[in-house]
TrEMBL record:
Source organism superkingdom: Bacteria
Keyword match Oxidoreductase: yes
Signal peptide coordinates: none
Span of domain D-isomer specific 2-hydroxyacid dehydrogenase catalytic: 14-324
Identification of the protein by name: D-glycerate dehydrogenase
Oxidoreductase as UniProt keyword: yes
Organism lineage: Bacteria, Bacillati, Bacillota, Bacilli, Bacillales
This protein's UniProt keywords: Oxidoreductase
Domain D-isomer specific 2-hydroxyacid dehydrogenase NAD-binding: 117-296
Length: 331
């Protein structure tokens, strides 16, 4: 009897919908028979649907996994996303067809938290604006009050969504910058409160009293648009708002209005409602808004770790083992 791996036809069929590092592809090749999308640009929906007819597994990093897709993929048993966020999973559609869904938590916590801290500092100390100022030859005097920003150290940081990444941000704030930590979360976290001297607040109290507000909840029906004009109006006029969760957790039009009216000092954004954001979006033309192209986890090492974890999840699921990162709603 040949060993299972030697009988190529017995390996599960998978489709790799985005490029992955060579070592990840090699690992998948050992355990699966695969076809893949060869280009760096995201796969168009029609091509994805056409690629799934025989697929038992799908490795992806976005795009709706919904009834339409599942109808085109009658043999699909598992979808593994190379991301923590899985708001692209239609959980009911997947449950109905018993399709497993996995994600890649934790391996990116520190990388994303570093970037969030970068955004906090960039907005508070106006770093991109000052960079342009020097490069455009506008630097005339050494001590100019118009260049002043806001302090980060010893200020109050309010985290909405104190999960794995929120906690990594809070640790940097507490131990690196002597900040006071407040948080609002679905549930209270006594151990975190003790370790970081963190204070649990209602959303309203957090918005009213924080100097920095970091939004880090997943995008769900409950969190969609959770920060709107009313929430911005509660914030301090000197507050800095940072969003690295998903664009749609914030009402973007309301954020534009809040910034135009001077309701807050500025904003740092890694995510947008529509990505890539349009170059004429008003948020891109405000000097007190720092914008990034959704690069929270974008370092070579972290992206490799995420892709490998996603590959391991997919192989485990297809081999009938429990994948380590089954998404909560599909457990
Ligand atoms: N910008 C980027 O590149 C990245 C963005 N993300 C986004 O960040 C999100 C969070 O990631 P993790 O910290 O790993 O997830 P997590 O699941 O560890 O933490 C999320 C936290 O949000 C809380 N939460 C959920 N609904 C809430 C609500 N209505 N009100 C208050 N709190 C609520 C949960 O209780 C949990 O503590 C992901 O779902 C993803 O959308 C994640 C990684 C990178
Ligand atoms: O992991 C996620 O959810 C991202 O947004 C990208 O790393």
């Amino acid at each position: 009897m040949p060993k299972r791996e030697e009988r190529g036809t017995l390996k599960p069929n998978i489709f790799i919908a985005r490029s992955v590092p060579p070592e990840v592809e090699a690992y998948l090749g050992e355990h699966c028979s695969y076809t893949k999308w060869e280009q760096e640009d995201p796969i168009p929906r029609d091509k994805l649907l056409a690629s799934l007819r025989d697929a038992e597994g799908l490795l992806t990093s976005g795009g709706k996994i919904d009834d339409e897709l599942l109808e085109h993929a009658p043999r699909l048993r598992a979808v593994s996303t190379i991301s923590v966020g899985y708001n692209n999973f239609d959980i009911e559609a997947m449950k109905t067809r018993s399709v497993i869904g996995t994600n890649t938590p934790d391996v990116l916590n520190d990388t994303v938290a570093d970037l969030i801290f970068g955004l906090m500092l960039a907005v508070a100390r106006r770093i991109p604006e000052m960079d342009r100022y020097v490069k455009e030859g506008a630097w005339k005097r050494g001590d100019d009050k118009t260049l002043f920003g806001l302090d980060v150290h010893h200020k109050k940081l309010g985290i909405i969504g104190m999960g794995s990444i929120g906690e990594a941000v809070a640790r940097r704030a507490k131990f690196g910058f002597n900040m006071n930590i407040a948080y609002h979360n679905r549930n209270r976290k006594p151990d975190t409160e003790a370790a970081l001297e963190a204070e649990y607040l209602s959303l309203q109290e957090l918005l009213q009293t924080s100097d920095f507000i970091v939004l880090m909840t997943p995008l769900t029906p409950e969190t969609k648009g959770m920060i709107g004009l009313g929430e911005f109006a509660l914030m301090k006029r000197t507050a800095i708002f940072v969003n690295a969760s998903r664009g749609a957790t914030v009402d973007e039009q309301a954020m534009v209005q809040a910034l135009q009216k001077g309701l807050i000092f500025g904003a740092g954004l890694d995510v947008f409602e529509h990505e890539p954001v349009s170059p004429d979006h008003p948020l891109l033309h405000m000097p007190n808004v720092v914008t990034l192209p959704h690069i929270g986890s974008a370092t070579a090492q972290t992206r490799l770790d995420m892709a490998m974890l996603a590959a391991e999840n997919l192989v485990a699921a297809l081999q009938g083992h429990a994948p380590s990162c089954l998404v909560r709603e599909l457990r």
